[in-house]
Amino acid sequence: MSLRNNGRLSRREILKALSMCAAGSATLGPLLTGCREGLNTPAALEQLGGVRQARLDGKPRFLIVVGAVGGASIVDSMLAVRASETTAAGGEASKLNTFADEQVQNVDGSPFRAVKVETGYLGSIPMTLKTDQLPFVKKYKDSMLVATSVGTSVNHVIAQKRSLTGSNAWRGRTLQECVALQYGAGFPLPNVNMGNGGFADRGTDTSLPAYCYGELVAKPSFWPLGLDGMKGLKDVPSRDVVNMARVVRNSLDAQSVFGKTFDEVAALKLWNEQRTSGQGALEVQDLISRLNMMADNPPETPLSEYGLSSSPDADRLRAVFPNYMTDPVEAQAALAFLLIKNRVSVSVTLGPSFNIAFGSSKQFTNPPLAFDFSHNEHRSVQAFMWSRLMDTIDKLIELLKSEPFDSSGESLWDRSLIYMATEFGRTRTRKEGATRFGTGHDLNNGFMILSPMVRGNTVLGGVDPKTTLTYGFDPRTGAPEPGKMTANEEDIFSGILTAMGVDTSGSGLPDASAFRRT
Prior knowledge:
disordered N terminus, 8-stranded mixed β-sheet, 3-stranded antiparallel β-sheet
């Protein structure tokens, strides 16, 4: 193997090395000592040339995108408006989405608010609902930034994707792809996407390395079982024999008429790389076990019968996310933790879908249409969905806090950023005096970002109490700009990358220093 001029191995060479290790090569012993245990450490990744040197410390950062499908309204959470404030500003509180004063709680020493809602229904569904955002906001205010926004689409899929690309702010790349390019070259699957709709779409920059694009995962609780081509099957030959068969297969494929005709086609090249060196790189790390949350529980999941085992963290994750087999978001959050802890990914996307989900007690964990059920009844649906995602995010953060990043004293959370992306806000009007009302899609909204790397306890922009509409801000200084109602998707895109330490030189993105913790 040849070294590049900078002394680092190329990705292709890394994968080839891992494949050799999978086949039992002794040549690479000193380099890949303890293939399964050693490759997930920063030191091993650095030795293999996996971590790009864009940041001074050369260490990866982790992006977690939570896609709030259906339109999470920021004025139903951290920027809620009291009826008395709208009245005092000369607005008609009874015709706008304002709250009774006692439902909006102040957060000491913070510009944020927290909403408390108690009802006997969820939309049109009878259900006891008690939500209180105050514990979450108080707990994370110092790592929380809310940036107000004006989007450019009220179409679900289009707006979802634009929340990830900043409306094509940088060659159509998604935030996840930018982070994967910056930090993910030595990771097995740098960008894993469990999102839905436009949140699961890749960007439009075809010049990026293939590893930057998202690996789509539809069923996180079962997906790890597909990460090995033979483990988990009964009565199969030894791995050495299987590897020999693979070599013969690849040789025959390359000599076939099809292989010779299309050998220069990019899609076939990628396919061949993934099923040769790429497959070996995944199998050698035993991800089929290390990412497996399921218990060995015959007859439902008889793992040991098929030579399988659970992740060392599986018991803990099942305790934290007890509905992981029935609630997709719980399973996604558990897998997100494992992907980051085991140094498999630097970007993970999760979030609810439009589909109904139930917990073990047969209670709703996801209503029909998620946040978009607000068309039927706004207030209770927003309260339920905000509470649902806050609870999931809180559990995920606690898991990340519990794991050291390396020997420096940093935790995984210290190097992570959670972006609660949503496609748009909701309309502000209601029938005069109505306590139950539906809302439509609206360009005006805001985003919640959580990370020790952002300027915490900060609202960029603000809310006009007379209209309950948000207004903009200067992305460089953070100064509020009342009356500014122009689209600012690229400001938020740039701000997240700035906080993540991504090199944006030559991108043409605006200076968004206001997002970064100083």
